Amino acid sequence: MDQIEKRxxxxxxxxxxxxxxxxREIDTVVVxxxxxxxxxxxxxxxxxxxxxxxxxxxxxxxxxxxxxDVDMNTVDGYAISSWERGYGDxxxxxxxxxxxxxxxxPATAMVQCDLVWLxxxxxxxxxxxILSKQLxxxxxxGWQALAGTELEFxxxxxxxxxxxxxxxxxxxxxxxxxxxxxxxxTSRAEPLLRAIxxxxxxxxxxxxxxKGECNLGQHEVGFLYADALTTADNHxxxxxxxxxxxxxxxxxxxxxxKYNEREGSSCHIxxxxxxxxxxxxxxxxxxxxxxxxxxxxxxxxxxxxADFTLFYAPNVNSYKRFAKxxxxxxxxxxxxxxxxxxxxxxxxxAGARMxxxxxGADVNPYLALAAMVAGxxxxxxxxxxxxxxxxxxxxxxxxxxxxxxxxxxxxxxxxSALARAAFGDEVVDHYTNMAxxxxxxxGATVTxxxxxxxxxxx
Length: 458
Fold this sequence. Notes:
Blueprint: H1 14-22, E1 28-34, E2 40-46, H2 47-57, E3 59-62, E4 89-94, E5 100-101, E6 108-116, H3 127-140, E7 143-156, H4 160-165, H5 183-188, H6 190-202, E8 207-212, E9 218-223, E10 226-227, H7 228-248, E11 252-254, E12 267-275, E13 283-284, E14 289-290, H8 292-312, E15 334-336, E16 343-346, E17 353-356, H9 365-381, H10 406-414, H11 417-423, H12 425-443, H13 448-454
Parallel strand pairs: 1-6, 15-16
Antiparallel strand pairs: 1-2, 3-4, 4-6, 5-6, 7-9, 7-10, 7-11, 7-12, 8-9, 12-17, 13-14, 16-17
Helix pairs in contact: 3-9, 6-7, 8-9, 8-10, 10-12, 11-12
């Protein structure tokens, strides 16, 4: 078989994986893809079956996996999957660059997949395909996108089962006070944080470290930037593995954007372009300043921010995070190292990059990165001028606002000529329907807030 270059020496080649299966060091292979909601979906295959059948002939899964709500209910409105179409299969195409060992599980490896139809045409609505299309556009210019995601979560000394029995209320956080940058506070959660760090390193991620955050029990594990597709792949694996490790320790983790009325959990995304030869695109070394291409890229991000917000904030709960004075942005503006803006520019030289502060921890990394690359390329291709830097408090500015509800974001996305030009009608219609399903479910729900206010007093 052809040898495919590994992303780093902690990944396995297919030949190495098959050898470990042969020696019984690996007996289970997780074959998976990332769905619309950002979750890993797939199968656990016996190692020998993987060797004998799947490597050469592949495996399939029902196409409803890209046409369900978060509860895995089949819902109407999707062109690719329905009762009328018979809920047929998609083929999982193994991406050998993603083979990794999962050391928190016995004798287990994982490989991530692309999705194609049975005639081998791509499933355009797959999040990984949506990002790959935008990365191919960048490559057409001679550029690659480098990205890092800063993903926060809240951890509880409560099992997932007990959390469900408690209605996900009154859980015990792993910290009872603000532990932002606190060494003492993070030590309380170190058994969990250490297990996540070391497991993810073994799985091929380049771990930077862990730090506490502001909400009770809130933490962040940071990873080194990589090319955008690798970052999205790693992000999806990390979210799943972190939850699995928490469950093994009798704990639980949530990546909700807004778990309670305190600080939300963000996913700040850092992005820059490099030449495919490694040359700098965003920085002029001779002049020691930003390049015109960098400014145009940022201008494109700002120009498309409202239209593409659905890809940055994909759930009803996402919009609860956008609050004045919360470190979550409300104003579509940019600033130099200004955390009140939606876009923050940091670094210089090879480290010059933009930070998108809009996404929350519930974001699908493939969709958010696709939106950022598409927006930036729009700015470059149209040579958009960059507006003046916002100096001061963006919350008090007169800048346009990020959509404040999912309904508003849905309308901007569905009617956006920019979105349809960048992603195609099939993708826009698919994710508009996803928003419609989410909004309908939320609209039909009687919340505890309504019961508390209205049961007796109204």
